[in-house]
Amino acid sequence: MSHHYKQIKLGKRLAKIAQLVTDSDTQVWDCCCDHGLLGLHLLTAHQTRFVHFVDCVPSLIDAVSEQLVARKLVSRSRTYCIDAGNLPISTDAAQLIIIAGVGGDLMASIVAQISRQYPDKSLEFILCPVRHQVDLRDTLRALQFSLINEHLVFENGRYYEVMRVSNQINQTRTITRFGEAIWGANGAESYHHAIAYLQQNKQHFERMRASDRENTDDILNGYNQIKITPF
Ligand SMILES: C[S@@+](CC[C@H](N)C(=O)[O-])C[C@H]1O[C@@H](n2cnc3c(N)ncnc32)[C@H](O)[C@@H]1O
Question: Which of 81, 139, 86, 78 is nearest to 112 (CA)?
Answer without folding.
Answer: 139
